[in-house]
Amino acid sequence: LLAMLAGVIIYVQTAEGTLVVEVDDPEVEARFKNGKLILSGPDGKERYTITPAERDKKIDAGPYTVRVEGADGLALDTKEFTLKKNGKVAVRVTLDPKLAKKPGPK
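Structure (tokenized):
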């Protein structure tokens, strides 16, 4: 899945919840590869990799976080990942546990 249009909202269901990806900048490329969201700049270089945080493997009540890994290897867990450009939100990523996949019958 690849998004290069401005004003796009992508919902991706995972076992941990639904990643909600809002892209409002035509210079940002958002794509999914091997279960991870990869954000690239206009030069095509990967800038950030985003996944549900490891500690959120079980869906319980409470806050949920996403793991953000920079191209430099730095990683952090946060409730919301926001990139701003000229004071305007260009990309926002959150994890919504309410939209998690329901386990199917066994």
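The first strand starts at residue 2 and ends at 3. Confidence is low (pLDDT under 50) at residues 1-5, 55-59.
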